[in-house]
Design brief:
Elements (H helix, E strand, L loop, with lengths): L7 H11 L4 E4 L6 H11 L10 E4 L3 H14 L7 E4 L5 H9 L4 E4 L1 H10 L9 E5 L1 H4 L5 H9 L6 E6 L4 H9 L5 E4 L10 E7 L5 H12 L3 E5 L3 H13 L4 E4 L5 H13 L4 E4 L12 E6 L6 H8 L9 E7 L4 H11 L4 E2 L5 H22 L3 H13 L2 H12 L19 H18 L19
Parallel strand pairs: 1-6, 1-7, 2-4, 2-5, 3-4, 5-6, 8-13, 8-14, 9-11, 9-12, 10-11, 12-13
The protein binds adenosine-5'-triphosphate and magnesium ion.
Length: 459
Amino acid sequence: MGFEEATPIQMQAIPLGLNNKDIIGQAQTGTGKTAAFGIPLVEKINVHDSAVQAIVIAPTRELAIQVSEELYKIGYDKRTRVLPIYGGQDISRQIRALKKPPHIIVGTPGRLLDHIRRNTLRLDSVHTVVLDEADEMLNMGFIDDIEHILSNIPRERQTLLFSATMPGPIKSIAERFMKNPTHVRVKAKEVTVPNVQQYYLEVPEKQKFDVLTRLLDLQSPELAIVFGRTKRRVDELSEALNVRGYSAEGIHGDLSQAKRLSVLNKFKNGAIDVLVATDVAARGLDISGITHIYNFDVPQDPESYVHRIGRTGRAGKSGKAMTFITARERGILETIEHTTKRKMDRMRPPTLDEALVGKQKMTVEKICSVVETENLDQYKNFAAELLEKYDSVPLLAAAIKMLTKEPDTTPVKLTEEPPLPMKKEKSRNKRKLDLKNKRVGRKRSFHSARSTKGSASPK
Ligand SMILES: Nc1ncnc2c1ncn2[C@@H]1O[C@H](COP(=O)(O)OP(=O)(O)OP(=O)(O)O)[C@@H](O)[C@H]1O
Ligand SMILES: [Mg+2]
């Protein structure tokens, strides 16, 4: 796979994994947690036994697919059979595939349960269970499903939990399902990776979109993700970006699975530059070339922040994350900074002129690369003629002007999102939330209603 040395989490977790220890593995985003559980997992598979021996559970369909691809690569030489099983895919096809049991299944909770109930998935030979994005999997939305799945897996098993974040209350829930787990924690001062530069911009709700497009013009990301709070927000934002001439598409849980996958593939291939997403794309996705993350709406909780910005700055690369907050959301910024133990730098929203300069720089870069790399012989006669008539500076300025796509200010329509509830609103919601927390023992620093989260649910 081209890896030269193990990452710190791999160095610590692989030997424990091979020793059949239960592990809670916590390390920053993009530091190779998949192989940290994947390598010992594959090592323990007996390829001569045609039975499902390991289950990996992931919170979203796209992540299940990605993890299964990575495990397939790790187990390739050993001929390990790996099958992803997720909602939105034809179930009869999955049932047929399960007739010849794969060694490892990577699935989303709902669809796994579906197969368990239909008796199309036998788990009695399973010796290893992994919860990728474990804190998300043991959160309110998934806990019942996970408990149900685990109750169908032999008790004599190894349980591995991995995530970049592991809030204390969730860790306590996790320990209920494990035997003497070792908490492997890579010693990092900060929860987020140091190679992601983090900024916040204070922007009134009504100006957010203009600020976003100016930033896109100024920073000209290779690939960028814009995170919005709700599905409607994502739809409106991607439409508005297209109106202004950006190649953007949205991804969220209400789209068909075929559409979700095609949007993600277009983004990976660079056919679109901007992916607009709910938190469905916040966790685990490993796409190279993502240089910029824009939190158009401030994340609902600090964990979501950590994972969203972790889509850039992976495997040692660098990245930038910009988080928009309205004046009323300042408290949320502090909560995030408190959790990540890192201050974000304040960034002043760029002006229209600065956006124009950004666009001009892009043109200049293109001209330079053409001068350096292309054969211009057929163009030189005209160039010489023009230079007899005009000075070189106005001539080049005209060419730059014509090649520069000036910032577009076409008005767009976005439905306003109310600021995230804090303080007063919080106490109003508190009782409801407390009841939920009691059930799962989860304390949140501020309210997060799953229904508005854009839903990371695979269902
Ligand atoms: N030892 C290694 N050397 C170099 N690259 C590696 C190594 N291990 C993993 N990688 C690569 O690093 C990238 C990030 O890995 P991975 O997706 O497993 O991160 P992660 O820790 O699970 O992140 P997240 O918390 O976002 O899920 C992948 O492209 C992976 O192939
Ligand atoms: Mg991961």
